[in-house]
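Why does residue order matter? Because the sequence determines the fold. Keep that principle in mind as you read this record.
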Amino acid sequence: MARLVVCNIMSLDGFYADNDGNPLVLEMDAAFDAYNLERLRAAEALLLGADSYRIFMGFWPAQAGNPEASTVNQEFGGIYGRIKVNVISDSPRVTA
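Structure:
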């Protein structure tokens, strides 16, 4: 049986997005990136919700070859381009 590690973006007071649903209002600095990259390097697969899947897979794989992206973002992109991704959704069909 595989081990499941959960990483969730949330402020200490329970907020994970602004009123429009944008999670990027939370402060994400170099320490945040380093932690998430460490977790991603150790992962064998990802489990994402449908919205996260659409957002992440529409953005991250392209960063692997983006010369304007940071080294960390390029590595994120490379991993997202090759890792197995499982999607949990209550929708009958999920598309990127």
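The mean pLDDT is 84.
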